[in-house]
Amino acid sequence: MQRLKTQRRLLLFLALLLLSLPTSAVLAAPLAQRVVGDDDVVYDDVVLFDESFELAEGGRVKGDIIIFNGDATIAGTVNGDVVLFNGNLETADTAVLNGDCVLFNGVNSGAGASSLSCVDMDVVLPASVANFINELTTSPDFGPPPAVEIDQPSLLGRFVGGTAAAVARSLLFGLLAFAAASLMPQPMLRIEDALRKKPLASGAVGLLTSFSMPFVLVIFGLVSAVLILACGLGLLGFPIMFVMVLALVAAGFLGWFSVGNVVGEFLAQRLNLKNRSQPMTTALGTVAITFALGFLGAIPFVIGESLIWWAIVFVGLGATALTKFGTQAYPLVALPQPNPDKITAVLETLPKGTLPNKTDIN
Question: Is this model's pTM higher than 0.90 or not?
Answer without folding.
Answer: no
